[in-house]
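Appendix B, record 7
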Amino acid sequence: MSRAKKNPSNLPQAENFRRLRRDHAVEIAQDYVEAIADLVAETGEARVVDLAKRLGVTHVTVNRTVTRLQKGGFVHSQPYRAIFLTDKGKNLAEVCKSRHETVVAFLQSLGIPQRVAEMDAEGIEHHVSEDTLAAFRSALRKRRA
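Structure tokens (predicted):
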């Protein structure tokens, strides 16, 4: 079979992999802004060493990701200084925190223990649709009423 015949069948798969890499980059950005917001709330600043420890990565990984977040307008920092969220980063962190809290609360409403709900929410929060989140919120409101 010629390459021309093979290549078109690979296009959907290639697009899936591109989408997966893009989604993964968004997930990482969300985790970082959420962690930065938490550290700033807890200690007044977010340092590379603290982010590395919290996220279980090396300081080199943090520096590379922070550079990408700066280019995206989510954080500002100077070498050897703390990392702070821009307004855009703060907004994203708030959205991420809300999504996380909704997923945790929904899972707990199903009887899932807090620790397990927190762990599961860490993956679900990045991939659940707005429609599903709205359904989670609606179900939670009905349970509280």
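Remarks on this record: Confidence is low (pLDDT under 50) at residues 1-5. The two ends are 63 Å apart (CA to CA).
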